[in-house]
């Protein structure tokens, strides 16, 4: 579904992403891990159109989308969330979901003035969809709560819900579990799994919680110092010496050799 070919991003003399090539298969839940500063979020931003690459190409279902902006990729079904949730804090949970679909009838002045019944029909349809999302995520008790009052984990669930308000093909989740308590983290994991299995969503997610990655992701891709280090199953990745060095330093490898 997504193909990244030799993508690089330089900020002055800093090579944040340095010649990365990878593929994300349709229907997969792919994990992207690596130490802080590995270039993971920068790579997400390049794929999602936030940053143009310094070099390289990106393809979505075989189409070159390298030069497209985030709103253009959004309409093609490529969505991205952020480490810090970006909710509309003074709107309710229901309203936050309802504003997501683009090109709504009420956004056109002529319909608002001369065809108000059409606007109301569209709004009712979107409200019904939003309530289906709320039920799916098991947050019906929060429907009329202001989004600004939600906990960090509830805001992450709301961000996931907003991806469900459009026909998403692939969703990039940036540290969806960061700062989330275990109960809500389990709800988020269950929702991602259900969306993948029941609705055919493809996911790629950055996460530092290895238990969360192990529960959901296959394959797992590892980055370090802007480069692709390795990829494979979570067990293959956890036993890879280069990965151990990237996370824990060369001393760990030397210690293991000495013990052997």
From TrEMBL:
Domain ABC transporter: 2-250
SUPFAM superfamilies: P-loop containing nucleoside triphosphate hydrolases
Keyword set, alphabetical order: ATP-binding, Nucleotide-binding, Transport
The name this protein goes by in its record: ABC transporter ATP-binding protein
Pfam family name, one: BCA_ABC_TP_C
A cellular-component GO term for this protein: plasma membrane
Gene3D superfamilies noted in UniProt: P-loop containing nucleotide triphosphate hydrolases
Molecular function terms from GO: ATP binding; ATP hydrolysis activity
